[in-house]
Amino acid sequence: MTLEIPRPSEGDIVDLILTDHRLFEDLLRELRDVTSDRRRVVATMAELLVAHGEAEESKVYPSLEKKDAIDDDEVEHGAKEHDEGYQTLLPLLESAAVDTEEFSDAIHEFSETLLHHLDEEERDILNPARTDVGDDDRARLGAAWATERNRLLDEGCGSVDDVRRLVREAEERS
Ligand SMILES: [Fe+2]
Ligand SMILES: [Fe+2]
User: Fold this and answer.
1) Is the whole model's pTM more than 0.90, yes or no?
2) Cα 119 to ligand 2 centroid, rounded to whole Å
3) How far is the CA of 78 from the centre of ligand 2 (A)?
4) Which ligand sits nearest to residue 126's alpha carbon?
């Protein structure tokens, strides 16, 4: 697969997020494959995970809460699952070897954590966005999220240091 991250600038927020979720699933499959360039896959995963999730937290979750589509429990829960994603991704970024049993176990942990979040977000956050938010607002949210996601990607948001900082901030909050 190509490890180029697509950068749309507009669209329906639900469609845009789902397109990334499929990309996460493809990247996980690529990561499990011992013949792939695992280091590059991990680096791409880190960029996409941070840009996608941080843009959701700053541009999507608060607006959906303001529109009463979701409540603050869902916002907090989503953010907590993003933190768990960073925590389980970090060992993959820090690992010296990518062909060990340990690395394989770390992929499993990360994969379980990420797939769990995609499932919950699609059911508990994207569904109310589909049913309780109008087309125009979903397009406005899509543009705001895409712009922020692209800004983060331009910054190179998924370095080991970035993910370490996100993990540290998560630990300070808990
Ligand atoms: Fe998402
Ligand atoms: Fe998310």
Assistant:
1) yes
2) 10
3) 6
4) 1
Indicate which ligand has the atom closest to the C-alpha of 84.
Answer: 2
Q: Tell me the ligand closest to 54's alpha carbon.
A: 2
Distance from Cα 40 to the centre of ligand 2, integer Å: 22
Q: How far is the CA of 126 from the centre of ligand 1 (A)?
A: 9
Cα–Cα distance, 46 to 162 (Å, whole number): 9
Q: How distant is the alpha carbon of residue 162 from its chain centre?
A: 14
Tokens of 145: 């999220």
* All residues with CB under 5 Å from ion ligand 2: 53, 56, 121
* pLDDT tens for the 174 residues of the chain, in order: 889 999 999 999 999 999 999 999 999 999 999 999 999 999 999 999 999 999 999 999 999 999 999 999 999 999 999 999 999 999 999 999 999 999 999 999 999 999 999 999 999 999 999 999 999 999 999 999 999 999 999 999 999 999 999 999 999 988
